[in-house]
Specification:
The protein has an 8-stranded parallel β-sheet. A 4-stranded antiparallel β-sheet has the order 3-2-1-17, with helices on both faces. The chain has a 3-stranded antiparallel β-sheet with strand order 4-15-14. It has helices spanning 51-54, 58-72, 80-90, 95-113, 117-120, 139-151, 165-178, 194-204, 221-230, 244-252, 263-266, 269-281, 295-307, 352-356, and strands at 5-20, 25-38, 41-47, 128-129, 132-134, 156-160, 183-187, 209-213, 234-237, 258-261, 285-288, 311-314, 327-329, 332-334, 337-339, 348-350, 361-363. Helices cover 40% and strands 24% of the residues. It folds into 2 domains: 5-114 and 351-363, Enolase-like, N-terminal domain (Enolase-like, domain 1), CATH 3.30.390.10; 120-348, TIM Barrel. The chain is of the alpha/beta class and 365 residues long.
Length: 365
């Protein structure tokens, strides 16, 4: 049960088309696969940062993982809780890097005990209805895409905002026209001040929007609270919530009742479940989402979704815009619903042929 070594595999995968949100445009998916070897077992995790959201890049994650990996070698991987706590103390702002290790350690523990990760937390395997996301595109393009998404079996569509009031309202209107029966949710990624956000939310309310993720800047909790009290669409904290302390402040302060959890923000599964516990105690609800992870990272998020009843909304489509699927095992999406298997641990790993084409960084003592 001792960690023998840590292996890092920096990778880059193309996108089918550029993906634009309010704070950045992504042309490729640049992350790091993390392998933690313990005896005859290997646990896998994934670091996929968005620098405009968590301040990390692939390169900073590699350096952080080198540093943290040296700390791990020789330690007992079954002591996952104390290990992750120590890692967070060593690099408290490198949440994506720590989160990748957290998942890899849980993968190891699950394999050792012969149970899937969600069972480690007392969860049950359930079907998770996910949305499919439309980035910032022209309204007519969004309308056509909405029809395609429904035809693919999805009943939920997420629409990115942040292109100006007129364009944002037109985009949501076009999506509603293209998908009359679909549930629509929107995500502004910190695009607006509170007054402008109120205009947008009140104008799109007529289209039956479920909620809006992060309409204001991350630290503008007062603005989020004001919108929670006055907007015609419910607001959800995303970039404002990185840990349980944030969740407590947001929920107890009346800023919102909805929180989006991402493993790259919460430093992994342990931190994510701490957030869910706080939100549940405040009678709120959670969504689990992601950045642009491969099916490995999204599978870890699906295990989180199966582990806690406070998580009622699912945004598990991060991998769908990639030019290739480099993962074996893991989740599948059927008719807009995410399903995971019952393999021990994570149940997903990078394909050997893909890893063979990457440069491996080995971390030892």
């Amino acid at each position: 049960m001792v960690i023998d070594r840590v292996r890092l595999y920096p990778y880059s995968i193309g996108r089918l088309s550029p993906f634009r949100i309010a704070t950045m445009t992504s042309y490729s998916v640049d992350g790091v696969f993390v392998a933690i070897d313990g005896g005859d077992l290997t646990g896998w995790g994934e670091a996929l940062p968005f620098h405009s959201i968590n301040g990390e890049t692939r390169e900073t994650c590699v350096e952080a993982l080198r540093f943290l990996g040296q700390f791990l070698v020789g330690r007992d991987f079954m002591a996952v809780g104390s290990l992750v706590a120590e890692l967070k103390g060593l690099l408290p702002t490198m949440t994506t890097a720590v989160g990748a290790i957290d998942v890899a350690l849980h993968d190891l523990v699950g394999q050792k005990l012969g149970v899937p990760i969600y069972q480690l937390f007392g969860g049950t395997n359930r079907e998770l209805p996910t949305d499919l996301t439309i980035g910032i595109v022209e309204p007519d393009v969004a309308g056509v895409r909405a029809g395609e998404i429904v035809a693919e079996g999805f009943g939920r569509i997420k629409v990115k905002l942040g292109d100006g009031v007129e364009n944002d309202v037109a985009r949501v209107s076009a999506v509603r026209e293209g998908a009359p029966e679909a549930l629509i949710r929107v995500d502004a990624n910190q695009a607006y001040d509170r007054e402008t956000a109120l205009v947008v939310l009140n104008e799109i309310a007529e289209f039956g929007v479920e909620f809006c993720e992060q309409p204001v800047r991350r630290k503008d909790w007062a603005g989020l609270k004001w919108l929670h009290e006055h907007a015609g669409v419910a607001v959800m904290a995303d970039e404002s919530c990185f840990d349980a302390e944030d969740a407590f402040g947001l929920i107890s302060g009346g800023c919102c009742s909805l929180v989006n959890i991402k493993l790259c923000k919460s430093s992994g599964l342990i931190g994510a479940r701490e957030i869910a516990a706080v939100v549940r105690s405040g009678h709120g609800r959670c969504m689990v989402g992601g950045m642009a992870e491969t099916r490995l990272g999204v599978t870890a998020s699906a295990h989180l979704g199966c582990s806690d009843s406070a998580i009622e909304y699912f945004d598990l489509d991060a991998h769908t815009g990639h030019t290739e699927d480099v993962i074996e095992g893991g989740l599948e999406i059927v008719g807009g619903t995410v399903r995971i298997g019952d393999e021990p641990g994570l149940g997903a790993r990078p394909k050997a042929e893909f890893l063979a084409g990457l440069s491996m960084i080995e971390v030892k003592k």
